[in-house]
Amino acid sequence: MSIRFGLLTLLQQQPMYGYQLRQEFESSTGSTWPLNIGQVYTTLSRLERDGMVVVTDEGDESQRVFAISDAGRASVRDWFATPVQPTAPPRDELAIKLALAVRTPGVDVRSVIQAQRTSTVRTLQEYTRSREAAGEDLSWLLVADSLIFSAEAEIRWLDHCETRLVRAGHTAARAPGTERPAHQPVAIEEGAKK
Amino acid sequence: MTEAILELRSVTRVHGHDETAVRALDGVSLAVNAGELVAVMGPSGSGKSTLLNLAGGLDSPTSGDVIVEGKRLGDLSRSGLAELRRRSIGYVFQSLNLIPSLTAIENVMLPRELDGASTRRARRDALRALDAVTMAQLADRFPDDMSGGQQQRVAIARALVGDRRLVLADEPTGALDSQTGEDVLRLLRARCDAGAAGVLVTHEARHAGWADRVVFLRDGTMVDETAPMASAESLIAGVSQ
User: Fold this and answer.
1) Which CATH class is domain B4-97+166-239?
2) Residue from the list A32, A121, A127 with its beta carbon closest to the beta carbon of B226
3) Does an H or E element contain B1, and which?
């Protein structure tokens, strides 16, 4: 769906060849979601079938120039005017993993959470760096921010899961050498700071 | 650039005695090199602030060593420690603790003057530090006439004025909006890229994303840390996979 509207939106600027469209799509999204040329032509032939684009030059695939039709323009207008609907919740491996971890004897859930947290923070560091290295390209900055905020949301959710586990008194194995309840140092440290 | 500006060696800090004793920090070791920004994450009560207070010489460990620019803090006299704190260490806190009755430049001059620098020298150093955070043109403003982001830039200038090469930041973006908060982190990052060593305590993952390395505390112990970063160029390629 996003490829279809992505290509149509790009065609609104000017008629283009298939390979040009692919290049434009990737450069406006910071090459975050690479397209193969086959996907581009498949999508274009569907758009042509649906009357959204017209072919202005005949010839073999790579020589054809695609232009947007009036119906295509209307479709792009609708796309921007309509919120993106979440489809059925995607099967989230991490959520499934944690849901099963709390029911599986012998699994240290806090270690599972920490391993994921370290890995996702690491991803976040990489996104932050590549965003800073990418300069002022606004489209790419927005895509990079999207990746960064999603990673942050996952980490916040992991923090929340851990708090929930501790509150629920889940008997996860603690780090070696810490026999006290995890909540105890809070009050004392806050008090000692002043 | 492998010179450790800050080193913690098996640092333990116990509050209270006997049955009520709590190990706020338990055997933590950490080295922060020149040019490196290390973020410390963990839930409240995990020991983050204790770690920062020990690193800055504001608190002393029950056991273990804190070493700043090659000097063991435990070996220093009270006045020696105070001097090291003034000369080598800069602090940026969550609350914008500029002195309201002093202008931006006077706030930044203060640590230099306390250190015995002449007014002229202190002024010159302060101006340079303000310039590094693009605040030189507001040098004569009072904190109340500046935005939160501008105040925090001045606080960072104050933390880095003179030759101080260790910056300790505790949730430095405080109540700033996300864009302004990001500017503060970008600045901290830039100061580290210019050769300072930074420790950033935060519970916000997005802020930790600016660090070279992130360490995780839980119940006073270090439970994990991220691997060191590769070069920026290879990362751009990595994102698209």
Assistant:
1) alpha beta
2) A121
3) none
Q: Cβ of A58 under 8 Å from any chain B Cβ?
A: no
What are the extents of the domains in chain B? 4-97+166-239
Q: What is the pTM of this model?
A: 0.77
Those residues whose C-beta lies under 8 Å from the C-beta of residue A194, and which sit 6 or more positions away, are none
Interface contact A129, partner B, CB < 8 A: yes
Residue with tokens 């295509």: A72
Q: What is the pLDDT of residue A52?
A: 95
Residue of B nearest to A192 (CA): B15
Which residues numbered 31-60 in B keep a CB inside 8 Å of some CB on A? 41, 43-47, 49-50, 53
Distance from CA of B172 to the nearest CA of A (A): 17
Residues 6+ apart with CB under 8 A from B232: A129, A130, A132, A133
CATH architecture for segment(s) A2-81: Orthogonal Bundle (1.10)
Tell me which amino acid residue B17 is: H
pLDDT digit string (tens) for B178-206?
877 888 888 889 889 988 999 999 988 99
* pLDDT above 70 coverage of chain B, percent: 93
For chains A and B, count residue pairs whose Cβ atoms are closer than 8 Å.
Answer: 133
All residues of chain A having their beta carbon less than 8 Å from the beta carbon of residue B45 are 183-190
> Under an 8 A CB cutoff, do A183 and B45 touch?
yes
Write out pLDDT tens, residues B113-131.
888 889 999 999 999 889 8
Q: According to the model, what pLDDT value does residue B70 have?
A: 94
Region B79-97 average pLDDT: 85
pLDDT confidence of residue A181 = 46
From residue B196, give the alpha-carbon distance in Å to each of A118, B94, B110, B131, B237.
25, 20, 20, 16, 28
pLDDT digits (tens, 9 = 90+) for A66-95: 999 999 999 999 998 888 877 766 678 898
Mean pLDDT of chain A: 83
**A142: which 2 tokens?**
């927005």
Of B210, B225, B240, the CB nearest to A128: B210
Structure tokens at A74: 């209307």
B22, B223, B232: residue with CB nearest A188: B22
ipTM: 0.77
Which residue matches tokens 């001059």?
A: B109
C-alpha to C-alpha distance for A91 and B147, rounded to whole angstroms: 45
